[in-house]
Amino acid sequence: MLERLRVGLIGAGGISRAHLAALGGSSAARMVGIYDVDRSRAEQRAAEFGVGRVYRSWPDLLADGEVQVVGVLLPHHLHRQYAVEALEAGKHVVCEKPLAVDLAECDTMLDAARRAGRRLFPVHNRLYNLAYEAMGDLVRQGAIGSVFLAQTNGFEGPGAPLSRAWLADARGGGVLLAQAVHPAYALRWLLGEVEQVSCLYGGRKMVEMAAEDTAIVTLRFASGAVAEMTATFGIRHGPFDHAIMLYGEEGHVELRLRRDDPSHPHSLRLLSPRVHGDRAMHEVAVPDSSFSAAHFRRMWEDYARAIQTGKPARVSDVDGRKAVEIVLAARRSAELGQVVALPL
């Protein structure tokens, strides 16, 4: 049996709760210590989740020989700096999404991991959600035939960017980088490589933030399938959900994540004559998570096993770069008013 991977975190903001809850009691990884520039916040998280060490500085965390992997839970524009420094210090890195703010920064991070002989993983946590797994299994098993059309939505309110100053200003990168990166990596996982991207920003400012608060992105995949992603921070009165709808030659499957209904956090429905023998929508049973950060735990455990065995994980550093590339192509399309081909 493998020993548990020893983790140090930098960043004690809101997302750290999900990671700390996931690591607590994990069979594959355990927390060693946490650092945040706001020491009182780090101490609060440490007390809340039973973390043994609160580092006085970032160099103190890097110098801790017990720490094998660093979780970088910082604003987007800081990912490259801290991930590279951790890799150069001999640590593996798990970095919150998006991997970085541009492809040059992504490449610097990937190069640093190669040079150091260490692993770098993006936080693509939704791919470890049991409902996403079930959707992927249905597609791969041919339950709806060949997919030709997909739609996603991300409906969130202004509280998401306005609760974090860096997300509302130019450093946050807008709704594309902050939110649409999730369906971008999920659609690529489900449907394969993207070859063309186009995008329109909303013409009405719904949130006081520097970058776009609403966008519609269209994707064309190498398979010929097309997809539309709608992303917004402008919803004030619901529905507050995220959804993926896939349409195939022989059926339809839809997945919804509902943030405003913790008692029923996901819904997966399938129309498949091949599976059910009729043309009705059927609810697909997906085990309810015992706690809200269950998919983060499954992600950390997959990454820990990959680090300890040298085998691939479900998600790679290249997957993180590809997701950023899709988002940057959408941004370029909106700015130029034309379809953008990949790779950039």
In a few lines, what is going on in this structure?
With about 350 residues, the chain is of the alpha/beta class. It has helices at about 15-25, 40-50, 60-65, 80-90, 105-115, 130-140, 160, 165-170, 175-190, 275, 295-310, 315-335, and strands at about 5-10, 30-35, 55, 70, 90-95, 120, 145-155, 195-200, 215-220, 225-230, 240-250, 250-260, 265-270, 280-285, 340. It has 2 domains: about 5-125, NAD(P)-binding Rossmann-like Domain (Rossmann fold, 3-Layer(aba) Sandwich); about 125-290 and about 325-340, Dihydrodipicolinate Reductase, domain 2.
Q: Summarize model confidence as the mean pLDDT.
A: 95
The shape is globular
Count of beta strands: 15
Count of helix runs: 12
Strand content: 15-25%
Task: Please tell me how large the radius of gyration is.
Answer: 20 Å
Straight-line N-to-C gap: 43 Å
Based on secondary structure, the structural category is alpha/beta
The largest sheet, given as strand count, sense and whether it forms a barrel, is: 9 strands, mixed
Oligomeric state of the chains?
A: single chain
State the strand order across the main sheet: 14-13-12-11-7-10-9-8-15
Helix residue percentage: 25-40%
Provide the CATH architecture of the largest domain: 2-Layer Sandwich
CATH topology of the largest domain: Dihydrodipicolinate Reductase, domain 2
Low-confidence stretches: none
The CATH C-level class name of the largest domain: Alpha Beta
